[in-house]
Here is the input.
Amino acid sequence: MAGSGLLAGCLDGSSSETEEQNTPPQSEDETPQSTDENRVLIVFFSRTENTQAVAEMIREEVGGELFEVLPAEPYPVDYDTLVSQVDEENEAGYTPPLQCLVEDIGAYDTVFFGAPTWDMQLPPPMKTFLREHDLGGKNVVPFNTNGGYGVGSSFQTIEDRCPNADVREGFSTRGGLERDGVYLAIKEDRREEVRAEVTDWLQRIRI
Here is the structure.
């Protein structure tokens, strides 16, 4: 797909609330583009940039366009306040409005869908995305970062909310642990370790 690999609206260049972006942007020549036969969208939600780091690795391998999911009202920077708010949202089944949506989701054949584990669940903004976009008939490929507690119910939620999609094997890796002050963990040597894991996973699922 021709172009810079960025979607108008929620671009991947947005910095997280807790950490400055660690990786310099890549030029169009350095990143493969998805082909007309398999148009790729990489959707991600990332507070501390660990999930964003994985999204960028996926794009380096398969091309496509990045779309960052951003809630219309940013979450609190304070961790304890964030945890309390997310608990309340999950208990109430609340899904917050987003800053922007994908204008033409039908243009894509494969949608990578990545988020951290929050409250052992898929973060509420990602539930909003699934409610607002019909992914039926597409390859949906989950990916996840977490603080060491696994994906929780995240991947199952994606399957449940995409009943007419081909949901592929997901990828999960350890990221930061904000509770303990560990923010961007996927950097330097750890970034290269995760990159190798991502490459193996993509080869295994043949995307």
User: Anything to note?
Assistant: The beta strands are 40-44, 65-68, 110-116, 139-146, 166-167, 171-174.
